[in-house]
Design goal:
12 helices, 0% strand, mainly alpha, Rhopdopsin 7-helix transmembrane proteins
Length: 312
């Protein structure tokens, strides 16, 4: 009886480890694959249908490109052990925690950069829609797809500047790691992450709310459908922003306050959950900004055709 119970416990442990390994290593790759397909299909659809000439769709295209890059760099961050083994060989990486940590730290830089770029392009899209609704005459004469691409270049330039600050912090962290002595960056990197999360909150939510308020003032209250749709969009975007950033901020606050009493396995699960949320954000963006809009437009056009059938 005892042997049977021990075997059952052993089988449960093996099964649990298999599930854990599958979730940690394969689920991110599956989510990234789905995200890349959704984003690439959005890019292809915009290009092939000629909608790339429309400023709003150009902004959506730029957002889809940034989300695709963010998915790839985030996957490299999550699979740092695999990347380390690929670069240095499995023998050098297995059991060498400092080398894996170095790869994780370095991969955090492009990961943060593309995440920041994605947030900037959400604001760019909101700005384009603001100009079209609030200043329609100026939009017709001045706002072109070429200018939207130019503004996208400005967004990436700004992203590079901000990311360089984060990159310097990462390099200082690595410097202390290789020298074998703790420095300010090693002791306070949680503070840096919290500041960066808080910064992303502000740089995203404040412009979104300001653009939304400005659009509400222009759109007549009688256009109930458009007002409700705008309100829902702002709420959803705000929720996605909060949900994607809050878990990382919470983890760093817990660690900074010395309340981190989790086991290593629990830490890995928490870290993986945070990364999954990031992944899902980049998958949801093209669905939210492009595919749902396409479905609603087709539904509206179909309704119009049914209400006003063509006469012989």
């Amino acid at each position: 009886m005892d042997n049977f119970e021990n075997k059952s416990l052993s089988n449960d442990t093996v099964f649990g480890n298999c599930i854990h390994s599958f979730v940690i290593h394969y689920v991110p790759a599956i989510i990234v694959g789905i995200g890349l397909i959704v984003n690439i299909l959005a890019i292809t659809s915009i290009c092939l249908t000629g909608k790339v000439k429309i400023p709003t769709y150009t902004a959506i295209l730029c957002l889809a490109v940034s989300d695709s890059l963010a998915l790839v760099t985030r996957l490299a961050r999550v699979e740092a052990c695999a990347v380390c083994s690929l670069l240095y060989g499995e023998e050098l990486c297995s059991g060498n925690k400092s080398r894996v940590t170095a790869v994780q730290t370095i991969s955090s830089i492009p990961s943060f950069m593309t995440l920041h770029g994605s947030f900037c392009h959400v604001i760019l899209l909101a700005a384009v829609r603001y100009v079209i609704i609030v200043h329609p005459l100026k939009a017709r004469g001045c706002l072109t797809s070429g200018k939207v691409i130019g503004f996208s270049g400005v967004a990436w330039t700004f992203t590079l500047i901000v990311s360089s600050v984060y990159g310097i912090a990462c390099m200082k962290y690595l410097e202390g790691l290789y020298e074998g002595k703790a420095n300010w960056f090693m002791d306070n990197f949680e503070v840096i992450d919290i500041i960066m999360c808080f910064y992303l909150f502000l740089v995203t939510l404040i412009p979104l709310l300001l653009f939304h308020i400005a659009k509400r003032k222009v759109i007549p209250a009688t256009l109930t459908y458009h007002v409700v749709r705008m309100n829902r969009m702002v709420i959803v975007v705000a929720l996605i922003t909060v949900i994607s950033l809050f878990p990382l901020m919470l983890r760093n606050i817990i660690s900074m306050l010395g309340l981190d009493k989790f086991t290593q396995k629990q830490k890995v699960i928490f870290f993986s959950a945070i990364q999954f949320i990031y992944f899902l954000r980049h998958v949801v963006n093209p669905v939210l900004y492009f595919w749902i809009n396409e479905v609603l437009n087709k539904k509206r056009n179909y309704t119009k055709c049914c209400q006003h059938p063509a006469r012989d």
